[in-house]
Design a protein that fits this description.
single chain, 2 strands, mainly alpha, 1% strand, globular
Length: 319
């Protein structure tokens, strides 16, 4: 006797509205974020003493203990929550991890080569956006806000200088693996995975979704004078996902961006190159325009290759 096919199982939590999904995800992330920061602070004080917190607050970053504490707080309070929250949300709350983390690998591998070329060719364009951002001046009545933004930027830069002081090749490799790879996976799972998926369900418009997600991504970093270049990166990462249906091209792009900066910084610190990667006046106007033209061409090429093998996301064919 032929057995009838088993009844089709409906997706769990399919009735949760996008607004409620976003609310629960933000609540989950904030809870993990606060817990992670408390744990990071307790570990730092337990290992290095309470004085290390005073040194961090006063920006006395010369001690190795302070640098190690900064890394502990960064990992426990920011990096791990960014990774853990989307995984818990996809697996335990929505119970549809493949749809929200977008870990499928069914996309043309040629896209990864296009991403590689695009990320390097976009360097002049990113520099141009950085220069525009650096010249940003708020109205006089917001001068206090601008001073706060500049002070916060300077404090972040001072902390990053000591955290990314890489005296050995091993220290550079560690940063590539952690900041380059781990951070790329974590941030893409959270922004282009969960948040972009929720917003796509909400807006039903992939372009609006990509730009909103990119804006949130840039604002999240709290580096105001780097907002425009990070917004640009968030936009192209977002299109990499919606045009392929997979998170991995965006992770690859994010990894290239982060790791290139780390390796270039290490090379400059060891006097193997003469150009400071923080210098924002390496390219000229002709290269800015050329970069823009080629980036647009490569984006269209990426979209064309992605459409050759249509991907399905949230029941909608992407293209």
């Amino acid at each position: 006797m032929i057995q009838p096919p088993p009844p089709k199982r409906e997706h769990a939590n399919v009735t949760i509205s996008p607004a409620l999904q976003l609310f629960w995800f933000v609540l989950l992330f904030v809870g993990i974020f606060l817990a992670g920061n408390i744990i990071g602070l307790l570990i730092s004080m337990g290992v290095y003493g309470q004085g290390v917190m005073t040194a961090i607050a006063s920006q006395e970053f010369k001690s190795a203990n302070v640098v190690n504490s900064l890394w502990i707080i960064q990992i426990a309070g920011t990096s791990l929550p960014i990774l853990i929250a989307p995984i818990i949300f996809g697996w335990k709350i929505i119970k549809r991890p493949a749809e929200y983390l977008l870990t499928n690998t069914r996309f043309p591998l040629m896209l990864m080569l296009v991403v590689l070329c695009l990320m390097f060719i976009s360097s002049p364009l990113i520099e141009w956006l950085s220069n525009i951002n650096e010249k940003m001046v708020l109205p006089n009545f917001l001068s206090g806000v601008q001073k706060w933004m500049r002070d916060a930027e300077d404090q972040t830069r001072a902390a990053e200088e000591v955290m990314f002081n890489m005296p050995t090749t091993l220290s550079m490799i560690k940063n590539v693996l952690f900041v380059g790879l781990f951070t790329a996976i974590a941030e893409e799972f959270m922004f282009r995975g969960v948040i972009q998926t929720i917003l796509l369900q909400w807006t039903k418009n992939k372009h609006v979704t990509v730009w909103i997600t990119a804006t949130l991504f840039s604002a999240f970093h709290m580096q105001f004078f780097g907002f425009l270049p990070r917004l640009f990166l968030g936009v192209i990462f977002g299109y990499f996902v919606v045009w392929s249906g997979s998170i991995w091209p965006a992770v690859w792009a994010h990894f290239i961006n982060n790791s290139t900066a780390i390796v270039a910084t290490w090379l400059f610190q060891h006097k193997k190159i003469g150009v400071n990667p923080d210098d924002e006046h390496v390219f000229n106007n002709a290269l800015y325009i050329s970069s823009l033209v080629v980036v647009l061409f490569l984006m269209f090429l990426y979209r064309y290759l992605g459409r050759k093998q249509p991907q399905i996301l949230n029941g909608e064919e992407l293209g």
